[in-house]
Amino acid sequence: MNLHLAAGNGGSKAPLLERVNLLERVNLLESFFYISEWQIPLIHKVKSFMLDSGAFSFMMQPKIKVNWNEYVEKYADFITTHNVDYFFELDIDSIIGYENTVKLRNKLESLTGRQCIPVWHKSRGRDNFTAMCKEYNYVSIGGIVSGEIVRSEYKFFNSFCNIAHDNGAKIHGLGFTNTNLADYRFDSVDSTAWLYGNRGGFLYLFDGKIIKKIQKPPGTRLKSKEVAIHNFWEWVKYGEYLEKIICLAGGGSRPFVLQGETLHSSNQKRPQNLYLAGYNYKRNILNE
């Protein structure tokens, strides 16, 4: 599984630009709605780059009036100008209806000369998902961030992953934030979870298998820039671990880790209260 870290509307600027020698370790996702000039040179420097259409931003701001034909033309122009390999359709069924969404998808593919990644929603039905997997090399599931798909339904994700794989397609979980990602058979997901530490006042630490939260000591404040850098790169390490995961075939199977290989950071013991991601915990991350 490839974990793409969603850039977070500029939140990734410090983590990326202060570690330019490590960019080849990063899987990144950005929204066309938010992408900035400083990010463009990184598109072909990171390990993998995915471009979201920005449709979710419009769904969250329904008062914004958009000429969708003009928008898809600008989106397609950016994709072709910068040779973006992985890009998602404008999944705006809830705004313009499914049939019009398909028309925009067809226009996008005609303008770019390549397949986009279609985004399945529950309203399209299971048969539509199967047909999509037969037609496309890469598909995705949407509606996770918006709450269309609720947590109690996550148990069905692996069956959808199996349908995709049975038809020779890869599958992406859009906005799938979960600290137990190894339990799922997605080929890729994206997440803004690395940003939550600054908001919630905690650090993330990858322990070799899972991401843990470390609460800041009482009476201290976190330095936002240093914490952003630290948390971003801990999630990069988690992503590198996930890329080593193989899911066993068959219903209800559990994933296992390739043996005989050294996993990035998986066997390193770090004093949690002293050094995290190259920073002195007390001097560089905390304001006491």
Assign a percent range to the helix content.
25-40%
Q: Rounded to an integer, what's the Rg over CA atoms? A: 20 Å
Tertiary shape:
globular
Strand content: 15-25%
Number of helical regions: 10
List how many beta strands DSSP finds: 16
Helix-strand pattern: EHEEHHEHHEHEHEEHEEEHEEEEHE
Structural class: alpha/beta
Mean pLDDT: 83
The end-to-end span amounts to 39 Å
Please state how the strands of the largest beta sheet are arranged side by side. Answer: 4-3-2-1-8-7-6-5
Uncertain ranges: 246-284
Largest sheet: 8 strands, parallel
Main attributes of the structure:
288 residues; alpha/beta; 8-stranded parallel beta sheet; two-stranded antiparallel sheet; globular
Question: What order do the helices and strands come in, and which of them pair?
Answer:
Blueprint: E1 2-6, H1 13-17, E2 27-31, E3 48-52, H2 55-59, H3 68-81, E4 86-87, H4 93-96, H5 98-112, E5 119-120, H6 126-135, E6 138-141, H7 157-166, E7 170-173, E8 188-191, H8 196-200, E9 202-206, E10 211-215, E11 221-222, H9 224-242, E12 245-247, E13 255-257, E14 275-276, E15 279-280, H10 281-285, E16 286-287
Parallel strand pairs: 1-2, 1-8, 2-3, 3-4, 5-6, 6-7, 7-8
Antiparallel strand pairs: 9-10, 11-16, 12-13, 14-15
Helix pairs in contact: 3-5, 6-7
